[in-house]
Amino acid sequence: MFSNFNMIDNEKFTKRILITGGAGFIGSHLVRLMVNKYPDYKIINFDKLTYAGNLENLKDVENAENYFFEKGDICSKANVEKVFAENAITDVIHLAAESHVDRSIEGPLEFVITNVLGTVNLLQIAKEKWSKNEDHVFHHVSTDEVYGSLGEEGLFHESTPYDPRSPYSASKASSDHFVNAFYHTYGLPIKMSNCSNNYGSHHFPEKLIPLMINNILQKKPLPIYGKGENIRDWLWVEDHAKAIDTIFHKGKIGESYNVGGLNEWKNIDLVKFLCKVMDEKLGRQKGESEQLLTYVSDRAGHDMRYAIDASKLEKELGWTPSITFEKGLELTVDWYLENKEWMDRVTSGGYQTYYENMYDKR
Ligand code: NAD
Ligand code: DAU
Questions:
Q1: Which residue has the CA at smallest separation from atom 10 of ligand 2?
Q2: Range of the domain at 86
Q3: Which of 37, 206, 284, 348 is most buried, by the most CB atoms less than 10 A from its CB?
Q4: Domains in the chain: how many in total?
Q5: How far is the CA of 55 from the centre of ligand 1 (A)?
Q6: Averaged pLDDT in 10-residue chunks for the chain of 362 residues
Q7: How far apart are CA 290 and CA 293, in angstroms?
Q8: Which of 41, 67, 147, 168 is catalytic?
Q9: Domain membership flag for residue 169
Q10: 168 given a catalytic annotation
Q11: Is 144 a known active-site residue?
Q12: Which of the 8 DSSP states describes residue 37?
């Protein structure tokens, strides 16, 4: 549905929420949750549809009466002002970003433009449009990568000093600082969440888990950066969407919340486990897919370990992850096996060339 057909309907809805990046991986799960759970909210998905944005991700809700899509760029003042005015936006949940670390190493400027300038443009327009006497929320969705890299011990807490080390995390850290600056300087009612690595359906296959699923299916090499000993803390994407819903509704204005599932995996162990799950599902011989493991040169500046302490969110707001990693990974593999056309379609554009160039360089 297109928002300009429905300007007169704005008053029907108790909130009119602009979700930026709603056609991406996490954004599409959040849009689905909000559209289904809150029929009295108008959900406006505002997305530029870059290589990572795909409206096919939202086929199941596209005809819902409270769902609207508006194609636009968060960096454009005109685009953002238009969507605010036409929908009388009451709240923003901001996910639109360039999200892939490897791409940020190849080309940092795009990350500064989208993640920093785009966020400041949104903040500026929200500040201008919203009256201080009304209830509004600007929820900024960020990453645990802003905290840098951990050694063998310890977890990231909300109070951990920022220490971003990749162009991607530097751009996200910068956007977080601007969000906080708009709260402290202008009193903009912000909330923030910093989440660990997500996995699940509709994940673009440049990221570790869907890339490995795709390559296992096609019997292509499985590129492990460095020794494969780097550790990531994985969370089911639907649990992240539920956490955003919880923080958006119950979190305190001006505060940030860490989101994660205490689920650390070394990359090599995770990929070997995935090989085992997929060999069973595909009826292949035990150990067959592991033979595709290929060690390639390391990511520049590769952060060693991420691990999140989400106890503030659990204790204060009552959120907990709903699913084990083993179950979530199985559901994820099943989804990709049942949706091979989705994978074919998203890999048939410029992405394939990008990936092959990257791989050749390693
Ligand atoms: P994604 O790359 O899958 O999706 C990003 C979406 O933003 C796409 O739909 C894209 O079209 C859109 N977009 C990009 N530039 C835009 C612009 N200028 N204007 C409007 N739309 C634009 O990303 P994701 O993995 O779903 O991540 C979403 C957010 O969550 C990001 O802010 C990311 O930093 C954060 N995050 C991601 C993870 C993760 O594991 N994927 C973890 C923590 C936080
Ligand atoms: O921690 C949250 C972050 O997680 C998000 O903010 C980012 O948007 C998201 O992309 C993700 O970043 P990572 O760099 O951790 O994810 P990625 O899937 O790219 O890589 C996960 C790990 O796997 C990392 O240690 C690099 C390694 N890797 C990745 C790829 C794509 C490989 O060994 N081989 C690969 O081919």
A1: 100
A2: 14-199+236-260+301-323
A3: 206
A4: 1
A5: 14
A6: 59 97 98 98 98 96 97 98 97 98 97 98 98 91 98 97 98 98 97 98 97 96 97 98 98 98 97 98 97 97 98 98 96 97 85 61 55
A7: 6
A8: 168
A9: yes
A10: yes
A11: yes
A12: H
